[in-house]
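I am still getting used to backbone structure tokens and would like to learn alongside you. Label the sequence line and the structure token line clearly, so we can match residues to local backbone shapes. Go ahead whenever you are ready, and we will take it from there:
>
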Amino acid sequence: MSLNEQVAQSYLASLQRHVDVFETMANYHQECVELLEACQSTLAAGGKVIWFGNGGSAADAQHLAAEFVVRYKLERGPLASIALTTDTSILTAHSNDYHFDSVFERQVQALCKPEDMVIGLTTSGTSPNINLALQAANEIGAFTVALTGRTGGKVKDIAKLPIIIANDETARIQEAHMFIGHWLCEAVDMLVAAEQKA
């Protein structure tokens, strides 16, 4: 088999690994229902949803915050949500003057209220800046969520609601996180649109 043929075959192998993960997604149904209920309570109390992550998970955090503020599918009013990964001045000033480990913790301390929901995305569960930020949110009294993977790492013992995608491949874990995030957006859209029409 030529190299080009091997690379072409890798498409099907990658697809199969994706399917293998998604065949397990029903296992997370109860945690996702709890996530939706917490999100409903947050928004009903006038709180906001705060997202953060590193690398690809930072991009996912920004993506999902945008779905809340703008919309997902249905026409409805804006929902309060923010990603802590977007302000380059804050990110670079804090990392330069203090330490990157506390770059999200500092923002949580400044912006988070007890009525908020705070969601950290980390495929490993071992990112110090995610764990410290969730600890800070716990101290404030916010509802904390970790979208993570592998065996959950330290974050599974920090977040009030850890959702652990039991897989070792970063890309597949991130795909599962985005599925959960998009489902949350869809469910919230339906509930909020119905409330706003009532």
Remarks:
- The radius of gyration is 18 Å.
- DSSP finds seven helices and five strands in the chain.
- Strands lie at 49-53, 81-83, 117-121, 143-149, 161-165.
- The chain has a mean pLDDT of 97.
